[in-house]
Amino acid sequence: MKIYFISALKLTFVMLVCTGFYLLFVLIGSKLLPTQGNAETITYRDQKFYANIGQEFKSPKYFHSRPSAANYNAAGSAGSNKGPSNKEYLETVQKRIDTIKMQNPEMKDTEVPVELVTASGSGLDPDISEAGALYQVKRVAKERNLSEARIESLVKTNTEKPLLGLFGSSKVNVLKLNIALDKLQ
Fold first, then answer.
1. How far is 22 from 41, CA to CA, in rounded Å?
2. Do 37 and 30 touch, CB atoms closer than 8 A?
3. DSSP letters along 129-152, please?
4. DSSP H or E run through 41
C-alpha cells in the first residue's frame, strides 16, 4: 500500500510540474502575440467590435459571414452537434444553399463554397475562405454600384495568407472586409 501511495505522489508531482511549465509556456507565448493574448478589437463609427468573433451581416451590400449555430452569441458558442447524415442538418444546409443562390443569382450554377452554408464548431468563426468572399463579389458590386474588379481587389487585399505559407489556408475576416468596403465609398 505504501508503494502505491509514494508512486501516486511522485506522479502527482511530475504532472504538476509539467502542467505548470505548459501554463507558463502558454502565458509567455501569448504575451509575444501582437494582441498579447487579448481579443482584437476594432472601433468603427464609435462602436466597438471584436474581430475574432463572427458578426452577422444581412444587408446585400455587405459580404455575409459563415452561418452560426449559436446565433452569433459569444456567450453561448456551440456547434449544432448534428452529423452530416442527420436529415434535419441536411435540410438546413439545403435551405442555406437555396438562400445563398437566391441572394447571388449572378452566380447561377457555380458551386457554393462550403463555409457559406455550414456553421463552424464554435458557431462564431469570423473568417471565410477567399473563395467564399469571391463568390459574393458580383452581388456586392451590383448593390454598391462599383466595379467587380475593384471589389475583387479589395477581397485580395484583405485575404490573410497561411501562417509561414504552410499552416492553414487563406482566409478573409468578414468584419474587416466589410469595414474596408464601407471606407471605399
1. 27
2. yes
3. -HHHHHHTHHHHHHHHT--HHHHH
4. strand 41-44
pLDDT digits (tens, 9 = 90+) for 91-148: 999 999 999 999 998 888 889 999 899 888 777 889 999 999 999 999 999 999 999 9
For residue 19, give the C-alpha cell. 502542467
Portion of the chain with pLDDT greater than 70, in percent: 97
Between helix 137-144 and helix 148-157 the angle, nearest 10°, is: 120
Across the beta sheet with 127-128, the strand order is: 127-128, 171-173, 159-160
Letter string b/e over residues 69-106, b meaning 16 or more CB atoms within 10 A of that residue's CB: bbebeeeebeebeeeeeeeebeebbeebeeebeeebee
Pairwise CA distance, residues 172 & 160, whole Å: 6
The C-alpha atoms of residue 60 and residue 148 are separated, in whole angstroms, by: 15
Do 107 and 113 meet the contact criterion of CB atoms below 8 Å apart? Answer: no
Residue 54: what residue type?
G
Question: Which one-letter DSSP state was computed for residue 116?
Answer: G
DSSP H helix total and E strand total for the chain: 6, 5
The reported pTM is 0.78
